[in-house]
Amino acid sequence: MKNITDSFLSLGYWPSAGSFGFNTDILATNPINLSVVLGVLIFFGKGVLSDLLDNRKERILKTIRNSEELREGAIERLENARVRLRKVEMEADRFRVNGYSEIEREKFNLINSIYTTLEQLENYKNETIHFEQQRAINEVRQRVFQQALQGALGTLNSCLNNELHLRTISANIGMFGTMKEIK
């Protein structure tokens, strides 16, 4: 039996409208069907596809512009952060240098203060020693004087009698009167 498609192509006439069948010749029917489907899709889908592609293109361009703006903002923030970092590093270096010099200055002041305090303590010690020496010397002098006075009084009391005692008192009063006249 002959295929309908073969007879359609070979005879050049239309088959009767009452018959309907499947064409099993894939090579003959697929290019025709595909060209029809593609033609319909291109004709009707061209506007929709064009709109979709335009929208997609606009979204991509908008995304690219936003990305560029974000990139520029990020670069600007990065530069600002770098400037702040340099300032902070310089400030830290300044604090470090000032801190070290302040520490050295405080150390020097502390050493000077301790040296001054030690000198004062040494002076107080020397003054205390000198004072104690003077006090000891005065005590020894007083004791020696008291012992000498007691010895002299003892000698005078043992050697003096009433007459000698009265003459000594008169001589001393006489010396005292002469001293008043000299003044």
TrEMBL record:
<dbReference type="InterPro" id="IPR002146">
    <property type="entry name" value="ATP_synth_b/b'su_bac/chlpt"/>
</dbReference>
<keyword id="KW-0138">CF(0)</keyword>
<dbReference type="Pfam" id="PF00430">
    <property type="entry name" value="ATP-synt_B"/>
</dbReference>
<feature type="coiled-coil region">
    <location>
        <begin position="64"/>
        <end position="98"/>
    </location>
</feature>
<keyword id="KW-0375">Hydrogen ion transport</keyword>
<keyword id="KW-0175">Coiled coil</keyword>
<keyword id="KW-0066">ATP synthesis</keyword>
<comment type="function">
    <text>F(1)F(0) ATP synthase produces ATP from ADP in the presence of a proton or sodium gradient. F-type ATPases consist of two structural domains, F(1) containing the extramembraneous catalytic core and F(0) containing the membrane proton channel, linked together by a central stalk and a peripheral stalk. During catalysis, ATP synthesis in the catalytic domain of F(1) is coupled via a rotary mechanism of the central stalk subunits to proton translocation.</text>
</comment>
<dbReference type="GO" id="GO:0015986">
    <property type="term" value="P:proton motive force-driven ATP synthesis"/>
</dbReference>
<keyword id="KW-0934">Plastid</keyword>
<keyword id="KW-0812">Transmembrane</keyword>
<keyword id="KW-0150">Chloroplast</keyword>
<dbReference type="GO" id="GO:0015078">
    <property type="term" value="F:proton transmembrane transporter activity"/>
</dbReference>
<comment type="similarity">
    <text>Belongs to the ATPase B chain family.</text>
</comment>
<feature type="transmembrane region" description="Helical">
    <location>
        <begin position="32"/>
        <end position="53"/>
    </location>
</feature>
<keyword id="KW-0813">Transport</keyword>
<keyword id="KW-0406">Ion transport</keyword>
<keyword id="KW-0472">Membrane</keyword>
<keyword id="KW-1133">Transmembrane helix</keyword>
<dbReference type="GO" id="GO:0045259">
    <property type="term" value="C:proton-transporting ATP synthase complex"/>
</dbReference>
<protein>
    <submittedName>
        <fullName>ATP synthase CF0 subunit I</fullName>
    </submittedName>
</protein>
